[in-house]
Hints:
The protein has 22 helices and two strands. The protein is mainly alpha-helical and 496 residues long. It has one domain (3-135, 198-227, 242-428).
Amino acid sequence: MGWEYLFANPVTFLYIIGGVIMGLVFGAIPGLTATLAVVLILPFTYMFTPEDGMATLIAVYVGGIAGGLIASVLLNIPGSPAALVTCFDGSPMARNGRPADALYLGVFSSAVGGMFSAVILILLSSQMAKVALKFGAWEYFALGLFGLFIVVKLCSNDMKRGFISIIFGMVLAMAGMDPVLMNERLTYGVWQLGGGFPQIATLMGLFALTEIYTQINKIHLKEKLQTVPVQKVSFLPSKGLLKGIWPNMLRSSVIGTCIGILPGVGQTTSSLLAYNQAKAASKTPEIFGTGCKDGIVASESANNACCGGALIPMLSLGIPGDTVTSILLGGLMIHGMSPGPMLFRDHQNIIGAVFIVFIIANLLMFVLEIGLMKAFIRVLTSPINFLFPIIILMCVVGSFTANSRVFDCYIFLFIGFVGYLLNSIGFTLSPIVLGYILGPIIENNWRVAMIANRGNPLSILTHPIAYGFILVGLLVLFWPQVKRLFSSLRKKRQAA
Length: 496
């Protein structure tokens, strides 16, 4: 689909606008995700032309990933797993009286990250996908371990509690069917846990319900989440807001795009990697987690750039880069098309649709989210007796809809209570969630690699990409010690 199709069929613009709005709403409300939005709209695209169907799905995808920052900034609850890392600095900045600045940084970074990945998608969609073919079990194991090192690094203030939290998250992920031996483990006779702890219910329980329990415990102290003065909102940033963020934004966009190309890794890992790199490159790393704008920029640039990267293996190889692109594959198949090299030859109109709509959707996302920013800021001033029941209802609906099981709603309530108990005794929840996400990547690929190499762990030495990830991860983890060692050696030389 070229520009000619858009001008000849202006109703397509309405589909794109409607898709972006739907995605923003689903991304912004905790418990409703971009995945759910795409799943719900997918059956209706059967009645559309292939171009209009893909236009709508791509628009929902872009809006859903970007919309997650709204709840992350205003409620300290990630609207979607992709916005998890945005909570680290977005919420503190909002609670420090700068909600508009936090939202503007997030929206602007999302748009730039999305546009950057769109350029890569257009120029290198077939060439860059070849890089992912070099990744086997050892490479994915090392990448997961690299992410784990970063999680430990983020918990540097209390390494012991952080390590315990990570282990707890990984144990949660192990419940259910063993991926290799195909027998149940850690289910304790509860047959509903055969598929493990459902992701949406678990994540919403750990963040949404834990936050609600915490706020209810303080209900006698205040009637609102937090009163934040509403700033004047415009399409132009406040003076100096964007100063100095461009190197970080470009680096994070590159990280997000590259991680998106790797099938199954996803936005959360890319945001985490970008956040850690921003912190490592900063001259003032101690301000990260207190409302640092570089933290917001890194997270949002990376998770939206991951969208364009995830489309590359989907289109070129027929391998989804993340959960949403696996559903987009279904959208192509509904119209009788098979993703892969033949798609570029036989259906160039669809390739053009994806390219152009992805760019337009990112631009519309910026305009719509900035235009509605004042309304989003007012969410923080809503009385909790109205706000909390709505959030709980949306989370319960989201938990149920994912697998159509009431049991998932019970998991949501149980995990939320456990998260509240852990939070009340000083454990942070972010390492739990990240351990839950990274655990399966590490375990599954480790076991596959060991089976393929007859139990020889040293076979990783024949995979330079894999041990390169591990070495860089160890360097990142122990960089303060390495830095002190070099500093002491330098002082000894000077003294001599």
